[in-house]
Amino acid sequence: MDALPPLREIVARYGLDAKKSLGQNFLFDLNLTARIARAAGPFDNVTVVEIGPGPGGLTRALLAQGAYVVAIERDARCLPALEELAAHYPGRLTIVEGDALEMDVAALARTHAPVADNAKVARICANLPYNVATALLTKWIEAEPWPSVFDRYVLMFQKEVAQRIVATPKERADYGRLAVLCGWRTKARTLFDVSPAAFTPPPKVTSSVVELVPNPAPLACDARALSRVTQAAFGQRRKMLRQSLKSLGIDAAALLAATGIEETKRAEEIDVAGFVALARELSRVAR
Length: 287
Ligand code: SAM
Fold this sequence. Notes:
Blueprint: H1 7-13, E1 26-27, H2 30-40, E2 46-51, H3 57-64, E3 68-73, H4 79-88, E4 93-97, H5 105-111, E5 121-127, H6 133-141, E6 150-158, H7 159-166, H8 177-185, E7 186-194, E8 199-200, E9 207-214, H9 223-235, H10 241-244, H11 252-259, H12 272-285
Parallel strand pairs: 2-3, 2-5, 3-4, 5-6
Antiparallel strand pairs: 1-8, 6-9, 7-9
Helix pairs in contact: 2-3, 8-12, 9-12, 11-12
């Protein structure tokens, strides 16, 4: 990649030793970062929001493939390295310092859309910090209005979390709140696994890159009601729904009867449409 110094040199120059508390596991393998970026592309007139660019490995790959990047980084130590990268790609990289959990990423993407483009497209691509990965994804998928500005999310998670995102009732052990939420508003699939050896330092477990494509017209339902229902149901997943849904403080039997779901079913037997029906009924009776 032309005159940019190798990433390891950048890390040494700016003293970017990885901090566990920030979920820092860096990627230095250019083939891998290019592969992740390709999975998120093509990038004609696309603004990519990257969470946690760190020393900028994946950021370089996104820029090299033509993306406009808005990179949100919490670790101030990384900013000089990212500014060097921004100088190499004038007008193509915006660096935002702060906690991505506190930010309105859709607003950021809108503000920094490519100037020349009227039909703006935005995407999120990231090797997520694992300590906040699930919280970030939940926040993005529960966001209103839906669909948001993002047409795709290409994200690295721990494999175990990836399995919980893409699970269906067939994968009982993995099927839970995250799968219902993602299954409601997106079509999610695992693209490929990444070995711990690909990271510096290596995490304990294998990772997976997941693609989530927003469903433009998900079944109508209130995200908070869906969250309440799945929390109650999966919070006591071994119990029958007539028991577990009592924690909602409503008449669980009546709720189930109104939706035509058998009282003796357990959470892991209910598909996304079933949970949406329960959430809608909860919104109606709790109004
Ligand atoms: N993208 C780089 C790569 O692939 O080599 C680094 C990925 S590393 C797994 C996660 C990055 O997210 C780190 O740079 C870390 O400082 C940053 N980070 C951690 N928590 C964050 C937060 N709440 N908001 C924004 N960035 C965060």
